[in-house]
């Protein structure tokens, strides 16, 4: 069965951040600090999905997707990050899973989509190796409850973005700006992933994956300096998170760090635990030039000459084909089947006078990327699923509510949901798919 779905994440949609015993996450704290997010917006209410989930499941049933990737909020299940389990938190996801299955939608939960319990941040967050073990214990707790009904688990979402934005540059929670000293946060996430794979399987999980954000890297010119910088970027963005998982070793990081003294014997064997799928989130390629002296070994030169989304991200559907065939060329038989766990675009999406939202650019974006994925499949890449980011307009992290990625428009003042034209387009597209092949 090919999975056609949509994707969301807990902090971006749930709201109800202080209800039913949920503990605080790093995103609650960060988004409440002045100047961290656009207009000081937070996920306190978001899409109020915690209360409106039956309506959201009905929207998925109407859409005709056969899978849904959502995330589980660690602090809802374990308010202090470890130890005491909050039964109401587990009950929420238990009900959601049952409702999805009843609607013919396979639940694909992600265990960590950036909302670390604040209690663990106070112990050093992902810079503290102990958090890797606590993550595996949390995974075991959730799986003990849900593994009988969940066909596919995803451990982490985009450990690169969490390390780079959260720990290296400080533009996402927990807001640390450590530059290359953020590398332990990469290793401990990967170690947490490996330990969680083991814990999930021990608890009866059927299939397990990891989601990485990957990008084709284009040198800004043929100059040696630009080509070398592009290699550095490829190492830090793509290979740092794929090589250890798929090959059991880190790429050569000697140019960026003096010692990998946080890597202990046996860690790489744990991290390289076999996977049933690799999740890939693709948005755009990256064009890289020689460093400018700001402390990073590369400079983002920007992709020019393509249409852009509301975020300013270049729209390059063929980049998805390039990425997938490149992964196959690089990893060969070590590459598991692929799930496109996120792909989509933000647009301005203002309702017209009759209330309809005519998001033709999103339809073109999705249509082009699905075609590029199919081209990669025709070139021999084993892709098993595609999830649109996102079902709903939601809290886009530091960008707040301005960047709308949904197939469904959300009026955040009233919480009214209005399917956009792209929702109807995707529904018609799905009617024409044979999901058994
Ligand atoms: C990805 C995130 C997701 C969403 C999209 C636009 O990096 O995983 O939560 O913000 O970008």
Largest sheet: 8 strands, parallel, barrel
| Secondary-structure element pattern, one letter each | EHHHEHHEHHEHHEEHHEEEHEHEEEH
Largest sheet: spatial strand order: 1-2-3-4-5-7-10-11
* Distinct small molecules: beta-D-fucopyranose
What this model shows, in words?
The chain contains 14 helices and 13 strands. It has helices spanning 10-13, 26-31, 49-63, 74-77, 87-102, 118-121, 130-146, 159-168, 183-202, 224-247, 267-271, 318-331, 360-378, 421-431, and strands spanning 3-7, 67-71, 106-112, 153-157, 208-213, 217-219, 277-281, 286-289, 299-300, 338-343, 383-389, 408-411, 416-419. The chain has an eight-stranded parallel beta barrel with strand order 1-2-3-4-5-7-10-11, surrounded by five helices. The chain has a three-stranded mixed beta sheet with strand order 6-8-9, covered by helices on one side. With 437 residues, the protein is of the alpha/beta class. The mean pLDDT is 97. Beta-D-fucopyranose (FCB) is lined by residues 9, 12, 157-158, 161, 213, 281, 342, 389, 396-397, 405. Beta-D-fucopyranose binds at residues 9, 12, 157-158, 161, 213, 281, 342, 389, 396-397, 405. GO terms for molecular function: beta-galactosidase activity.
Summed up:
By secondary structure, this protein is an alpha/beta fold. 39% of the residues lie in helices and 14% in strands.
Could you give the topology of this structure?
Elements: E1 3-7, H1 10-13, H2 26-31, H3 49-63, E2 67-71, H4 74-77, H5 87-102, E3 106-112, H6 118-121, H7 130-146, E4 153-157, H8 159-168, H9 183-202, E5 208-213, E6 217-219, H10 224-247, H11 267-271, E7 277-281, E8 286-289, E9 299-300, H12 318-331, E10 338-343, H13 360-378, E11 383-389, E12 408-411, E13 416-419, H14 421-431
Parallel strand pairs: 1-2, 1-11, 2-3, 3-4, 4-5, 5-7, 6-8, 7-10, 10-11
Antiparallel strand pairs: 8-9, 12-13
Helix pairs in contact: 3-5, 7-9, 8-9, 12-13
Bound molecules: beta-D-fucopyranose.
């Amino acid at each position: 069965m090919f999975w056609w779905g949509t994707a969301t994440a807990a902090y971006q949609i749930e709201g109800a951040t202080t209800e039913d015993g949920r503990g605080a996450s790093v995103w609650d704290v960060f988004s409440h600090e002045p100047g961290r997010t656009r207009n000081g917006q937070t996920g306190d209410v978001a899409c109020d999905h915690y209360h409106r989930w039956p309506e959201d499941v009905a929207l998925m049933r109407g859409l005709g997707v056969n899978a849904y990737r959502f995330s589980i909020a660690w602090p809802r299940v374990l308010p202090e990050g470890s130890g005491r389990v909050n039964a109401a938190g587990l009950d929420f996801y238990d009900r959601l899973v049952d409702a999805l299955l009843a609607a013919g939608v396979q639940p694909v939960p992600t265990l960590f989509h950036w909302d670390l319990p604040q209690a663990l941040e106070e112990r050093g967050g992902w810079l503290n190796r102990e958090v890797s073990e606590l993550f595996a214990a949390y995974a075991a707790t959730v799986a003990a409850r849900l593994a009988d009904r969940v066909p596919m688990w995803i451990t982490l979402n985009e450990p690169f973005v969490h390390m780079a934005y959260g720990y290296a540059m400080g533009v996402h929670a927990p807001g640390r700006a450590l530059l290359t000293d953020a590398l332990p946060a990469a290793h401990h996430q990967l170690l947490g992933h490996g330990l969680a794979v083991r814990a999930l399987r021990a608890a009866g999980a059927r299939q397990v994956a990891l989601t990485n954000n990957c990008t084709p890297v284009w040198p800004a010119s043929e100059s040696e300096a630009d080509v070398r910088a592009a290699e550095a970027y490829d190492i830090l963005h793509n290979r740092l998170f794929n090589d250890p998982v798929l090959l059991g070793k880190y790429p050569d990081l000697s140019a960026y760090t003096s010692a990998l003294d946080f890597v202990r014997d046996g860690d790489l064997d744990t991290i390289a635990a076999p996977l049933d799928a690799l999740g890939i989130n693709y948005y755009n390629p990256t064009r890289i030039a020689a460093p400018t002296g700001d402390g990073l070994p590369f400079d983002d030169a920007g992709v020019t000459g393509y249409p852009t989304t509301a975020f300013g991200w270049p729209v390059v559907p063929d980049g998805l084909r390039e990425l997938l065939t490149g992964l196959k060329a690089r990893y060969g038989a070590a590459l598991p089947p692929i799930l496109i766990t996120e792909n989509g675009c933000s647009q301005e999406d203002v309702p017209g006078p009759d209330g309809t939202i005519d998001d033709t650019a999103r339809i073109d974006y999705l249509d082009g990327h699905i075609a590029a994925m199919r081209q990669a499949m025709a070139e021999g890449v084993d892709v098993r699923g595609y999830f649109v980011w996102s079902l709903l307009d939601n809290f886009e992290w530091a960008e707040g509510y301005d960047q709308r990625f949904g197939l469904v428009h959300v009026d955040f003042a009233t919480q009214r949901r209005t399917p956009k034209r792209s929702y109807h387009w995707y529904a018609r597209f799905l009617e024409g798919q044979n999901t058994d092949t």
